[in-house]
Amino acid sequence: MPTIAIISSSVRTGRASHRVALYLQKRIEERQLATAEILDLKEYQFPVFEERLRLQPEPSEKLLDFAARIKAADGVIIVTPEYNGGYPASLKNVVDVLYDEWRRKPLAISTVSDGIFGGTQVITSLTFSLWKIRAWVVPAMFPNPKVKEAYDEQGNPADKAGVDKRADGFLDELMWCMEAATRMK
Question: Could you give the 3-state DSSP secondary structure of residue 155?
Answer without folding.
Answer: coil
